[in-house]
Design goal:
317 residues; alpha+beta; 2 domains; 4-stranded antiparallel β-sheet
Length: 317
């Protein structure tokens, strides 16, 4: 019931966003993401298929009536749009699972250019606003979610799509309203009084998507003193894992990238034990080995850090 109410609430949010898009940028009426629920089926292996394809003008891609694994496709497309909103990529690929068809989406504010690819060849192009595309995408996702719930189907991909639907609505609203999404996520994690529908632990996990020095510095500070912020242990676990993912990402950057980090194990000194417990396992093996070597040789100023890392770190020999 709670999930249903959340979906209903976000339907009104989606309608408000749609109206804002219409007024702000003029909806292009010749573009649509069509889901044909008359073709909705669930296989014995829990794969859910339906008709799903693009319409632009008088054209259809891959073709009118195209049938595919609709949940997997919608999840992948929402993940791709999230990369654009999070400013990680300006060019993303929207894939179909059956056949060799995909769409290259290139963002140049405020527009999104779609290049329809059959095999390795470009069949056609279409330009629309990013707002319009996300509106059509969330509209399609909601139709599929509601139809599957009506059938009382429950699969991991459906759970993921429900989460992605709420997430992309929330983030796109902030993105298009000029809200500093990164700063808002930081505040959700570090401020005990902050109210967030997804929960602080979800925010602490999701924040790793933002490859930003502000996020890294905030997580590092948080993981040293979480007890002062009155958070439950699961939030600390998630923050530690996110910090580990960001350490990996920073060390993999080109050296001229402002996000690049020359890894120094000393940044882990005095981190909360619960944060370390989830941070270390996600680190790349070479970084993990360097951290273990520091602890084994007692190089961390904090003896507690040396002892904890030696006890809880598994390294390949």
């Amino acid at each position: 019931m709670a999930d249903y109410l959340a979906i209903q609430t976000n339907r009104y949010v989606a309608m408000a966003i749609r109206n804002t898009y219409s007024e702000a940028c003029g909806m292009e009426k010749n573009f649509n993401i069509i889901v044909d629920l008359n073709m909705l089926e669930k296989s014995d292996s829990n794969q859910i298929t339906a008709g799903i394809y693009f319409q632009y003008g008088e054209n259809y891609f891959p073709k009118k009536g195209w049938n595919d694994v609709v949940l997997i496709i919608l999840n992948q497309w929402i993940d791709a749009m999230r990369q654009i909103i999070n400013e990680r990529n300006d060019i993303v690929k929207l894939e179909f699972m059956d056949g060799n068809f995909s769409v290259k989406a290139k963002y140049s504010a405020p527009n999104l250019m779609l290049e329809f690819m059959g095999g390795h060849e470009s069949d056609d192009k279409c330009v629309l606003s990013l707002q319009q595309f996300i509106h059509k995408l969330t509209e399609a996702a909601l139709k599929v979610i509601m139809a599957c719930k009506k059938q009382k189907w429950d699969t991991p991909e459906l759970t993921k799509l429900s989460h992605n639907y709420h997430s992309i609505l929330d983030r796109s609203r902030r993105f298009f309203n000029g809200i500093d999404i990164i700063q808002e996520f930081i505040e959700i994690v570090v401020e005990p009084s902050h109210d967030y529908d997804g929960g602080r632990s979800d925010a602490a996990m999701d924040i790793a998507e933002y490859k930003d020095i502000r996020v890294f510095d905030a997580l590092l500070s948080f993981c040293k003193n979480p007890d002062e912020l009155a958070v439950d242990e699961h939030v600390v676990d998630c923050a530690g894992e996110s910090l580990g993912e960001l350490i990996n990402a920073r060390t993999e950057c080109a050296k001229d990238d402002p996000f690049y980090l020359e890894f120094d194990p000393m940044i882990l000194n005095d981190l909360h034990e619960r944060a370390l417990l989830d941070l270390i396992p996600v680190m790349k093996d070479e970084l993990k080995q360097e951290v273990y070597r520091y602890a084994k040789n007692g190089l961390f100023p904090s003896e507690a850090t040396n002892k904890f890392i030696k006890l809880h770190t598994e390294v390949s020999t």
